[in-house]
Structure formats: C-alpha cells, structure tokens
Amino acid sequence: MVGGAGGLRVVFFGTPRFAVPTLEALLGSRHEVVGVVTQPDRPRGRGQKVTEAPVKAAAAASALPIIQPASLRAPGVDADLAAWRPDLGVVAAYGQLIPTPLLSVPRLGMINVHPSLLPKYRGAAPVHRAVIAGETETGVTIMRVAPKLDSGAMFATTVRQIGRDETSQALEDALARLGGRLLVDVADAMAAGTAHEEPQDERLATYAARLTKDEGLIDWTQPARRIHDRVRGLFPWPHAYSHVGGRRVIVWQTVPQEAAVDEAPGTVTAAGADGIHVAAGDGTALTLLVLQSEGGRPMPVADFLRGHPVAPGARFSGP
C-alpha cells in the first residue's frame, strides 16, 4: 500500500537487511514512501562482486525512487530530498551520519530505528555488543535523529529477551521485525499529532563500538560462558577463532558446560562426535560444535575431526 487518508509522505534511509522490515512495514501502512536513500553498490561476499544492498533490492522491487549518493554532503542531495516533499524522514541502519542541514528537510524531521534500549549501546554494533556482554534483554528504540550520535529524544521502546544461545544475527533479525512495527506506530502518532518525546539520560549512555576482526581471537583464560557469548555475538561476522595444531580454526557454534575440569585453559579434554571439549579459565569446559578450517566450509565437529584430527591434550591457543 502506498499512502492513505491522513498518511505521511516518508523518505526512507537504509542499506542492510536490518532495514528491510521497516521499509516493508511502511509500505504496508497508510503512509507513502516517496523515495529511498541508500548506500552506493559495493563489492560484497568472498568473490567481491558488486551487488545491490538489501534495501535497494527491496525498493526496486516496489518501484520506489532511489538515490545513492556517495556522501550526504554532496551537492544536490538536499534538493533531491526536498523535491520529494517529505513530511518525515525514517532512518534504519543507513550507514552514515545524517548531516544537520538535512534533518530539517522533512516537515516533521527525522526519526531512527535503533536496536537497543537507549541510552544504552549507542553506536554501530549495539546488537553484537549486547550479546558479547551477556545481556539477558535488549530492545528497539524509536528516537529523533539528532546531530550527536544516537542521542535524540525517544518516542517509543519495546523490550526483547535474549536467548542464552541466540546469535547476534538471529537477535538482529527479530529486532528488525519489532522495529518495523514500532516505527509505524510512531509515524501514526506523529501524523495524528499525539507523539510524545522523552529525552535520554546522558548519565546512562554507553557506546557500542564497531566490530573488528581482531576481536575474534578467543582468550581461553576467560570463563566458558564469556567465550560462548563472544562466539554468538561475533556471528555472522567477524566470527570467533582460535589456533590448534598450527591451524587457524573459525568457531561457529559452542555450548558451555557446568562440570568441573582440571586442565589448563585451552586444553582439549575430550574430542568426539558430540564435540571438542576445551578447558576454560573458570575450571569448566566449552564444547565446540561447529567449526571451519581456514579456506574450508563450516561443518559439525564429527565431520571436522575426520579431516582435522584433534586429540585430548591438544592445546587451543589464545592471545
């Protein structure tokens, strides 16, 4: 559906798959998406082939007008936005800060779908950082876009529990769906003039820094649960990894054990079809369930061990 009685004219900013459910929710609402701003096409995947990002593909499938400026500060971007005569700007994981002069182009300003319970976990990787930290709950906040990163007043929040074995990818997908529905509720309230904004408490603000590849190296002196949280928090990128027998091994799936072990951290205590059990720093073990050798594909441990034998007593190395 494109538009309806009392609906707003919306310009949408987004790029990755997290943003697609919000775009789809808007398209299914009484509001009209008059244009989409997304990042330029870039090389993606192992073959580094230039492909469309998910938002561009979704926008093209709905025959929406699309612009892909290399920078939002480029000449003419403000005029392109103004030509769409937007009432509201909606931002969901666009990938760049919105310059201050553009925030006032839509009549009602711009609002953002952020996957955390602000002011906690502002920044580029809020979902991953929450999982790595072992948080038991997170959520989505709809906030006004402000010049300072993720600092704008909040319109609405919704809470989502985090499963003990849930990966950041699964959690992000769930939050994307929640965020889309919550965003439409806020847009409805803005159209009706009933939306309420609550300022964030700056004293409670934390920052979720962008992930780096170096963060994947497992420190086996950490407790098994902390390592497990890092494995699932770094999924699907950049992945946790370690070294054994001179090989780099990417760790895809694990489960922490409660039984005590009496081995140095990183030592293999058992290896078989049920997993490779590795001693952690808290006197328990972490069971490795799915592994990937360098240049190979991820596989269950039973298959991995056929080509890469790992015996009790072997050592996984950390930092």
Tell me about this structure:
By secondary structure, this protein is α/β, with parallel strands linked by helices. It has two domains: 9-208, Formyl transferase, N-terminal domain (Rossmann fold, 3-Layer(aba) Sandwich); 213-317, Roll (Methionyl-tRNA Fmet Formyltransferase, Chain A, domain 2). Helices cover 24% and strands 28% of the residues. The chain has eight helices and 18 strands. Strands 5-2-1-6-7-9-10 form a seven-stranded mixed β-sheet. Strands 12, 13, 14, 15, 16, 17 and 18 form a seven-stranded antiparallel β-sheet that branches. A two-stranded antiparallel ribbon has the order 3-4. A hairpin with a 2-residue loop joins strand 14 (268-272) and strand 15 (275-279). It is elongated and about 70 Å long. The model has no long low-confidence stretch (mean pLDDT 95).
Task: Write the SSE topology.
Blueprint: E1 9-14, H1 20-27, E2 32-37, E3 42-44, E4 49-51, H2 54-61, E5 66-67, H3 77-83, E6 88-92, H4 100-103, E7 110-114, E8 122-123, H5 126-132, E9 137-144, E10 154-161, H6 168-192, E11 207-208, H7 224-233, E12 240-244, E13 247-256, E14 268-272, E15 275-279, E16 285-293, E17 299-300, H8 301-307, E18 316-317
Parallel strand pairs: 1-2, 1-6, 2-5, 6-7, 8-11
Antiparallel strand pairs: 3-4, 7-9, 9-10, 12-13, 12-18, 13-16, 14-15, 15-16, 16-17
Helix pairs in contact: 1-6, 5-7
Provide a compact summary of the structure:
The chain has 319 residues and is of the alpha/beta class. It is built from 8 helices and 18 strands.
